[in-house]
Amino acid sequence: MGEGFYVVDIVIFALIAGFLVFRLRSVLGRRHGEERPRPNPFAGVPEASSADSNVVVLPDRSQPAAAEPTSEEPHSLADGLQRIRAVDAAFDEKSFLQGARAAFTTIVQAFAKGDLEALRPLLSDDVYDSFAEAIGRRTAAGEIHETRLDRIKDADLLEARLDGRTAYVTAKFVSEQLNVTRDAGGAVVDGDAERFHDVTDIWTFARNTRSRDPNWLLIETRTPN
């Protein structure tokens, strides 16, 4: 009799254990190797950057750079923009101009700091080399060439064209800047350290319209003729 009761108890406990396992699986589910990892809410959060005052003198600003060669006949700004939109449906001139203004400020600030790492992804190879050379010269000479950018007063598109797969857009920036050159001791040797003046820069940006990268590169800087 006693052994019979033990067998019944074991069967009852086994049934209870099986029921609990079934309930746990129905609540927690089974791993099947295709579960998505839970996102880390702190991963990929960029560090906040400060908007410090920066000074800059861009290289070769007094000499207009040679224009990029093109096989097309000259055409109007509107025609050029339309040709770019025809091959790049995401292109919008208003958005481009907003981005160009931001690029202008970023490049001026990065050049002022001598931050070649920040400049590298924004510039074509030729422009980057020119900027890097200018930063090296001013460091070697012990001079501080300052162009303090106060604000961008105006920004307009001047030219747009499509050459093969590459789109070129030229913008004019009118900004208030303070320009001065100081020697190693801090004395002013050129320019005005007290007054801001209007400065006009003409920058040309380029982008391969077949590229997945939406960013444009600065390929030319010049001043009005």
Summarize the structure.
By secondary structure, this protein is an alpha+beta fold. It has 5 helices and 5 strands, in the order αααααβββββ.
CATH architecture of one domain: Roll
Low-confidence stretches: 19-57, 61-71
Total helices: the number is: 5
Summed over residues and divided by their number, the pLDDT gives a mean of 75
- Please estimate the helix content: 25-40%
SS content category? alpha+beta
Distance between the termini: 113 Å
What does this structure look like?
By secondary structure, the chain is of the alpha+beta class. The protein has a domain at 77-222: Nuclear Transport Factor 2, Chain: A (Roll). It contains five helices and five strands; from the N terminus they run H-H-H-H-H-E-E-E-E-E. Strands 1, 2, 3, 4 and 5 form a five-stranded antiparallel sheet that branches. Strand 1 and strand 2 (166-182) form a beta hairpin. It is elongated.
Topology record:
Elements: H1 2-28, H2 77-87, H3 93-113, H4 116-119, H5 125-141, E1 144-163, E2 166-182, E3 188-191, E4 197-208, E5 217-222
Antiparallel strand pairs: 1-2, 2-3, 2-4, 4-5
Which features characterize this protein?
elongated, 225 residues, 26% strand, alpha+beta, Nuclear Transport Factor 2, Chain: A, 5-stranded antiparallel β-sheet
